[in-house]
Amino acid sequence: MGSDNPIRVQSMTTVDTMDTQGSIDEVVRMVDSGCEYVRITAPSVKEAQNLENIRNGLHKIGIRVPLIADIHFTPNAAELAARIVEKVRINPGNYADRKRFEVIDYTDASYAAELERIREKFIPLVRICKEYGTAMRIGTNHGSLSDRILSRYGDTPLGMVESALEFLRICEEFNYFNIALSMKSSNTQVMVEAYRLLVQRLDEEGLKPYPLHLGVTEAGEAEDGRIKSAVGIGTLLEDGLGDTVRVSLTEAPEKEAPVARALIERYTLRTPHDYIEPVESCPINPFQYTRRSTTEVYNIGALNVPRVIADYSDIEITRLDDLKSIGHFFLPVPDKWAMNDQGADYIYTGKNPVPFMLPNGLKEILDFSQWAEHQDKQNRFPLLNAAEYQQANLSRISSQLIFIKGTIHTLNAEFLQSIRENTNVVLLVHTENGHAMPELRRLFFRLIELNIKLPVVIQRIYNAQLNDSLTLYAATDIGGLLVDGLGDGILLTPAFTENAEIPEKLKSASIFNSIAFGILQAARTRMSKTEYISCPSCGRTLFDLQETTAMIRKHTEHLKGIKIGIMGCIVNGPGEMADADYGYVGMGKDKIALYRGQEVIKRSVAAAKAVDELIGLIKEDGRWIDPNEVEVLN
Ligand code: SF4
User: Fold this and answer.
1) Region class of 101: left (phi > 0), else alpha (psi between -120 and 50), else beta
2) CA dist 496 to 266, 361, 472, 504, Å?
3) Please, what sign has the CA dihedral across residues 580, 586, 587, 593?
4) Which atom of ligand 1 is nearest to the CA of 536?
5) Atom 8 in ligand 1: which residue has the minimum CA distance?
6) Residue of 216, 537, 566, 589 with the most ligand 1 atoms within 8 Å of its CB, for mutation
């Protein structure tokens, strides 16, 4: 791993580590699915010891995949595991600290004394790793930073980086360099910023450029989990960072490797890109989220949430129901339009105008020639390219909102300067470059360098048949810009095969719409649904995470914007669910602890009653909405 080696795929087992045969069987399935490193939890010495049986069992059937012991809180388990497996993962937030959730003011002297205490606990492990040739991952987790780090640096990327560096400096002092580093968070912005900052700090301190293990923690399941992982991991891969990847899904572990592989292979198989003009200096702060400053045009840019534009330019609309795919429903009784939380804001119809009155809340974008002829310009806006805009008789385009589409080539500095003062222009940018995100980012940098404040909608065109890769590619290309505050809207365009029929096209419209909203949510720029921060489960898990997540989702998925943590164990769960509003955490067999933020509100709730109690807690806070009410509101 690292250097010129391929980017490696990692995953983690979920069965109890004491179940030797179950662990072996699971590892076999994982390896078959493409996993190259397998992590197994070792919560105490007895599990650490059992890694030997698992390893021997695997060797017996010819599987020599490197094993990694996952350690929290238990240095003695780490010291034993380091003698057995290829690598030990420690969490610097809890290796030598037990979390007390206290804010403590450290003086320089008391801080130094704490570091001394860590040294004493950590040095034996470093010595063992050196002796046995065992690798180590110093794996920081945003949700489980120590009280010491939190009190000095807060809950920040800098705190995450410093947390790892405290341990790394000790390793280097002992000439132990067999190390990988990670900076995981379930918040994609924080995660991206922390990895970037880590790389910069390693460089500044003259530390070695250690391999990076990339991951978004508690990403969740299904499409949401894949989008969130791609936004975080894909952004860093685009930056050229990352030597091993784990996609954490609340699904069977063998589902993770194919997703990680699809993300990685995009780079391994990539052809050389078209020239992208280099930057002299980076005009954004890559370590802190700041949305690009724009002026408001109609309802786009400035403080407006990024808008979603559905592309129907290749789908002929004939029926009211054709808009269902993008969240707009016509209800015959009471004879009106309704919209769900993922109702597109705009529809681009090109040359095929919607043949009926637009639903409330939906605006239409037409190609300029079509728009110019349309009788009813209410809620309809024109789209032109740069050349058309320059040639057009501007008095013919008196519109509150004009979209000008272009690429990094057509939206050159001269043209941008000529439209900079226009208060009704939104740019719609796209690219043909195989390396889409860097080229689009370069275009944003040009706008910032020229101090041009026009809002920008990002367009990407994907083959409608791409299936799973569509989600990952779109989340990387667009999410990678959004996490840096670049972009005021998304237009995802499906490219259909010639013989595609209308039902198939409408299905694609629905998928593309859902991905667009998912990307905005994962990049934390627009919340349109409940967010579930569910752990991927491991040998510590106290209930069936997939089943429980599905049950909680069924009851709460209408609570737009609320974040619910679903964590398999109370040892790490509360820390790992980081910024969740509520937590559902396993604390014993059939026993659940319920959290409000980081505070435990109810302990030992019977599992059968826990969802009702969780709903009660949300009601107490006045944040509950009856599902029927939501339908009416919509
Ligand atoms: S929170 Fe989930 S993944 Fe993390 S240690 Fe507990 S059970 Fe395992």
Assistant:
1) left
2) 21, 27, 19, 9
3) positive
4) 3
5) 538
6) 537
**Rounded CA separation 54/23 (Å):** 7
Encoded tokens for 62: 């010819």
What is the residue with the minimal CA distance to atom 3 of ligand 1? 537
Residues 456-504: tens digit of each pLDDT: 999 999 999 988 899 999 999 999 999 999 999 999 999 999 999 999 9
Distance 479 CA to ligand 1 centre (A): 27
Q: Which atom of ligand 1 is nearest to the CA of 541?
A: 7
- Asked whether the beta carbons of 64 and 39 are under 8 A apart, the reply is no
Q: Which atom of ligand 1 is nearest to the CA of 539?
A: 8
Backbone angles phi, psi at 515, to 5 degrees: -65, -40
Cα dihedral across residues 67, 224, 72, 242: positive or negative: positive
Residue keyed to tokens 């640096």: 153
DSSP element (H, E) containing 160: helix 157-173
In this structure, the strands spanning 591-596 and 599-606 are antiparallel
Q: Which residues, in sequence order, are CB contacts of 478 under 8 Å at separation 6+?
A: 458, 460, 487, 490, 492, 519
- Residue 463, H or E segment: strand 456-463
626 vs 617 pLDDT, higher one: 617
Ligand 1 atom with the shortest distance to the CA of 567: 1
Distance (Å) from CA 53 to ligand 1 centroid: 23
SS3 assignment, position 299: coil
129 sits in which H/E element:
helix 108-132
Q: What is the pLDDT of residue 631?
A: 46
Q: How far, in Å, from the CA of 176 to the mean position of ligand 1?
A: 29
522: tokens are: 């994962």
Counting every residue, how long is the chain?
634
Whole-number Å distance, alpha carbon 572 to ligand 1 midpoint, is 6
Residue 406 confidence (pLDDT) above 80 = yes
**Kind and range of the H or E run holding 259:** helix 256-268
234 lines ligand 1 (CB under 6 A): no
Residue nearest atom 6 of ligand 1, based on CA coordinates:
569
Beta bridge partners of 406: 429
Our answer on whether the CB atom of 143 is closer than 6 Å to any ligand 1 atom is no
3-state secondary structure at position 142: helix
pLDDT at position 439:
97
Residues 6+ apart with CB under 8 A from 450: 413, 416, 417, 420
Q: Is 567 a pocket residue for ligand 1 (Cβ < 6 Å)?
A: yes
* CB of residue 565 inside a 6 A radius of ligand 1: no
Residues of the chain above pLDDT 70, percent: 97
Of 156-165, 331-340, 528-537, give the range with the top mean pLDDT. Answer: 156-165
Rounded to the nearest 10°, the torsion over CA 466, 508, 535, 143 is: 90
Instruction: Find out whether the beta carbon of 535 lies less than 6 Å from any atom of ligand 1.
Output: yes
Distance CA 595, CA 584 (A): 7
Rounded distance between C-alpha atoms, residue 605 and residue 611, angstroms: 10
Q: Check pocket membership of 27 for ligand 1, CB cut-off 6 A.
A: no
Residue nearest to atom 5 of ligand 1 (CA): 572
**Ligand 1 lined by 537 (C-beta under 6 Å):** yes
Q: How far is it, in rounded angstroms, from Cα 283 to Cα 264?
A: 28
User: Of all atoms in ligand 1, which is nearest to the CA of residue 571?
Assistant: 6
Question: Which amino acid, 145?
Answer: L
Q: Out of 252-256, 378-382, 533-537, which region has the weakest mean confidence (pLDDT)?
A: 533-537
